[in-house]
Amino acid sequence: MSIDQEQQGNRKGPPRSTPPPLPLPYYGAARRRGPVPRFVLVLGGARSGKSTFAERLATTSGRSVAFIATASASDDEMRQRIAQHRASRPVGWQTIEEPLDLALAVRRAGTLADVLLLDCITIWLSNWMAREAHIQHHALLPAGKLQEDDALSAVDALLEAVASLPANKTLIVVTNEVGLGVVPMHPLGRAYRDTLGYVNQRLAGAADRVYLMVAGMAVDIKRLHEEATICSGSSCIAENPGSCEDQCSSTDDL
Predict the structure, then answer these.
(1) CATH code, 128
(2) Does 85 participate in catalysis according to the annotation?
(3) Number of domains composing the chain
(4) Strand 65-69 versus strand 209-214 pairing type
(5) How far is residue 39 from each of residues 11, 142, 163, 181, 239, measured CA to CA in Å?
(6) Which of 158, 174, 215, 235 could form a disulfide with 102 if both were Cys (CB 3.0 to 4.6 A apart)?
(7) Which residues, in sequence order, are CB contacts of 209 under 8 Å at separation 6+?
(8) Which of 85, 138, 186, 225 is catalytic?
(9) Domain of 43?
(10) 143-180 residue pLDDT tens
(11) Using CA atoms, how far apart are residues 55 and 51, in angstroms rounded to an integer?
(12) H or E stretch covering 230
């Protein structure tokens, strides 16, 4: 694992051009009051603005930043993407390249900065599945419980690393939402999609804040999830029953 090496991007499609600066907050996504979060998850589709938003969260925090890269310069296209991302980041950021051991990378980054930006889980899982294929003599099977459990164990190790950090540290994780498109034709594609879906669920469940990026705008879906209710008079079914107390009272008054 080396410092000051860069990464990023999905290998599909042309290299990402640097978008013009967008002011925070994104429809109020960053106005949420309360203690500084320990763990923030940013997810979205390709070119949804997730990396830009995550980088802006880190920059506007006013704290030192360490960037954890999960990809490596394996060909000319990736080298071009890396150069573009390097140019878009503040000079003072520390960078750690680690394609597989996220827990180790987070612990090391925690000694370098207060805000840790991991980009991205999508490429990490691709690296992880490729390594598993090598271990299994290049015979990746469709997603099954064993494969998913192994990936989730690696994610749990990451979450344990986050929990072990001092209270003044914040981890921002970027990942892709790949479950909204067509069903992949190849079994390996379906294995990847399913496994990443479970990984994202585990990360979102542990995160203090979860932002879904749509067309460059961030939606605070963790808050929406916590406030989700089904109210009918005095009876209430809610993810967080206390969150709909006012709504239920209003319903009773109708």
Answers:
(1) 3.40.50.300
(2) yes
(3) 1
(4) unpaired
(5) 27, 31, 9, 27, 21
(6) 158
(7) 32, 37, 39, 40, 41, 220, 222, 223
(8) 85
(9) 2-215
(10) 455 567 888 999 999 999 999 999 999 999 999 999 99
(11) 6
(12) strand 229-232
